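pipeline/complex-builder :: batch 7 item 3
reading input block
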Amino acid sequence: MSAAAASGHLVAGHEVMPEENYLSVDHSLKSWLLTVDHKRICILYLLTITFMFFIGGAFATMVRLELLTPAGDLMQSDTYNKAFTMHAVFMIFFFLVPSIPATLGNFLLPLAIGAKDVAFPRLNLLSWYIFVIGASFAVIAMITGGVDTGWTLYTPFSTNYSNTNVMMTAVGILIAGFSSILTGLNFIVTIHRMRCPGMSWFRLPLFVWATYATSLIQVLGTPVLAITLVLVALERGFHIGIFDPALGGDPVLFQHMFWFYSHPAVYIMILPGMGVISEVITCFSHKRIFGYKAVAFSSVAIAVFGFLVWAHHMFVAGISLYAGLVFSFISFLVAIPSAIKTFNWSATLYKGSVRWDTPMLYVFGFLGLFTIGGLTGLFLAALGLDIHLTDTYFVVAHFHYVMVGGMVLAYLCGIHYWWPKITGKMYPELPAKAAAIIVFLGFNLTFFPQFILGYLGMPRRYHAYPAEWQVMNVLSSAGASILAIGFLLPMVYLVWSLKFGKVAGPNPWQATGLEWETSSPPPEHNFHETPVVTTEPYHYGEKEREI
Amino acid sequence: MHKHHFDTFDQQKDASSFGMWVFLVQEIMFFGGLFVAYLVYRHQYYMAFGTSSATLRVDLGLFNTIVLIGSSLTMAIAVNAAQRSLQKRLIAFLLATMALGATFLGVKVIEYTEKFEKREVPGANFCFNPQGAPCKGVSHEEEKTPDLIQRYLNGRFGKLPGLDKAAEHGAEATTHAEAGEAAAPEPGVPGEATERQRSMPGSEVYFSLYFAMTGMHALHMIVGIGLMVWLLYWATKGLYSAEYYTPIENFGLYWHFVDIVWIFLFPLLYLINRHIGGHH
């Protein structure tokens, strides 16, 4: 590592953009649409899922506007059903699941392991096209009337009764699922077969471990969702009888098969975020991570436990008491690897030289919000309490704390942290810090009242509610408007920074990791020479000693 | 001749092969969902599954099993030929594999059509009532397999077996046959159960699973035959040799996997409880 790179932050204003980089290779549209460069594919995903995020956000706005008043006055109940369904479908399948793996994962995985690209670059591009086709189906389904089944597509409503665009939405999700499977497959093979000399398994950055665990879930879980959706489509289209009670089928089997994917999918929506946090917290504590192996293996443990807890979504669906007990117990076990991570992150801060740059603000936000989200998950894993809380706003608040407070904050954290690497430019620090604080405040104002509402018994998925709950709902809607500003701000200043941002230089954060040893933005083939790894990851203390 | 992002050719070959195995794991999970559903309902509707299964043609199923195992053999020989740079043998055995795959699908068409004729397809027209009243428009004359195949070879697809005999017994059946709606469900009389509702409980679940499982399997075979067309094209161009045969080898893995799925489907769908029910 050169001295200039090590002190990059101080001299950032004097860095010059490398003339040869992956962005400057070719500027034609064709070169983007036919690229097999994992870094450009990251950009393609980034644009696509940002678009999806704002569609999902628009529906969230509709939901929060309706809930401003107790009466169902803004929209009919049918319209409201569509609004919350479309919000979830777009946010989950078309934003959260691909968010970090397909963008930051795509960009960083080969760089972090010292490879020139993922194992199957053409398959990688194909995954993006498949994703876009799936997303198009969902968007067309939305434009031509939407879908009202809830994102869970429960039978027999979705197969026999709903008159909305269930089929087209299901096909869209199915297609996007194949994209997810292929990305996971690509990453698993890449991590196994493409590591540079010296990059042993326990020298892998923790982001890579988290991506590996995520990919395992994508490959093992998504196909089960795929066959379940195929059966729903066959049932809706050809009236076969696998889930239809009128024909002897069992709708609870649908729930088992759906949650066999969709619970692990919840961990697709948090594990990569945990990977980002592990990278950023070490960098801005300027200290080796506490308990590297524990953090690495806890990612894999979360992935494994994730496959054994699905029925905790079904405690009131008529499963047997004994099954309920077992699933409740295993659900509690998930708290162990999650807590291992949280404690190790906190211990990493101890005696570190902590800096308060924007990514670190998001880390602190993540730590607080994920802890609340995780602990309230234990409430819901408890059999007795869950019966009171099932299908209330408590559940809504819980998973938003994990998915938005956890994953979206981690995503924004990662975007800011690697923005200099991706674009070669620094984002402006002041508005970025402001946005991070606005997001944190807006988020808590939106979702904390929902815990209380849920505890008081307000059910989810209704467009009207008793008047005594209005204050909490107004607080929540007000918070949502603040949150929206927090999400819109980065759109503005990140785009601004592309033209006006300071040139970042190869390593503005003085971070360890192979991605920081190449120029920013990296050259087309990532490294001018294949790197050789000789040290442990996160050797923050040692670097100063070397110099 | 390895691609730029790999350091060595071995690394590329290794990665491709590993990727194929991961893909097959994904396929196992995909079919796994169906097998779980089968397991649940086989337990729940034990008798109905046995009775429904007895309507399948074991002889055709066995024939198809042999055809598929044979196609695995020809595929293995094709892979071996590619590894030894034997171009003509590779092409010949790819063609043989395709032919056997197509034979399997042809037999499947015969089996499916028979199910449609006997109204054993899930949907509004479904009727399966071995102990009760016979289903309207369905002959109970047993047709021997060679006759059945002969009928298909003669191109008499649309005609129901034994319909001519049924016509002798009553004008009603003839009218239905002429209108081409012999197997159409009776319009439901209010308060009276339809033939579908009077069907043996659980039998429609069995046939739903039969079509979903064999249908998904057949879809995989169709995709496989499509891929073989592509492989064949490149084989005739001389792309594959002892130095580079990864696509052939990986496709071989896929084809064997599809065969193994059938090895599970055949006993689960055709051979369960052959001692009860018998032919209805």
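note: The longest helix of chain A spans residues 77-112.
queue -> next item
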